[in-house]
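note to self — DONT lose this again. spent like an hour looking for the file last time. sequence + predicted structure for the chain T wanted, 392 res
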Amino acid sequence: MLKTILVVLGTRPEAIKLAPVIRELRNRPHVFRTLICATGQHREMLAQVLDIFQIKPDFSLDVMKPGQSLTDITTSVMRELDKLFSKISIDLLIVQGDTTTAFAAALQAFYHRIPVAHVEAGLRTKDKYNPFPEEINRRLVSPITDFHFPPTELARANLLAEGCDDSRILVTGNTVIDSLMYVRSRIQAGNLQLPDLGFHLNGHKLVVVTAHRRENFGGPLRQICAAIRTLAISRDDIHVAYPVHLNPNISGPVKEMLGDLPNLSLLPPLDYLSFVSLMIRADILLTDSGGIQEEGSALGKPVLVMRETSERGEAIAAGGARLVGTDVSRIRDAVDELLDDRVAYHSMANRPCPFGDGSAAIRIADYLEDSFMPPDMRPRVDFSQATHAAIS
């Protein structure tokens, strides 16, 4: 009898990291009936990714409204999922990461007594306000979760420290590496029509910037923009490319402070293919993103993290990422050092990637298939070996 799995996603990062899982589950139609629900937390950017992976949602909640608060998002997602869960029978809900969609969906599944699987479980900064609200979102999902899929042994250790059942934990590697390898192979094959981003490097170094986190709204973002402006003005050997988030809390200050510099390109939000292509070309990634710490590590790019804490401590320990906060001088000095000191640059570039080998989705699907099968039909899969392969 087929098991019905509902995958709920609402933002672009969720789509990127769940697409390989969805594709792998759908490769097993003899075991799973896989349904997709898009909450629409980031409507436009979500659609870009789903198109790349040829995934069409079965249900669209369309909760995004202008100027909504975290309370609005949480209650809207829960209200709409309550209606959906009352209409269809679900054997398992899958959520990813630390978004408000993930938290609200997991909580509503608990109310309906639906088991939950959590992809990218166990990430922690141990500072409840950094990142905000993600740190609390992911902590609250864990007690509800029945199947935990942490990307690394460090994430597994965090779950064990919080009392999670080790028999329900599988270290898989991060599914973002699965997606990155898939997209990079398509780009390298040369059969994709990528858009002209409107700038030419002409021998200049490329610094790619992303900054969008809620805890950086206001003063911290203005400091980030001041640092970028200082770098662009003081250096004639770089070009800065900054895909700007649609949120007016981001786009307003960024356009105000950075919109008049000839060697700085403010780009619209890029589809995932175009953004991976941009990262491949980059010399330095300057970001407050979590996922880019993983992607940059896999691409061998130095990542300067404009945050005071990171739940991706593995990238920092491996030497490919460094925390620089949002202070103007710290950001400027870190970029200058990498551009001017070849030893410093090469000490960060091409470090081993601690986030997996691109087979995380297969491990997740294998584990779920084994878990749902009757005991007398289960294959003899050594999941401990899968765990070691994921992080080796």
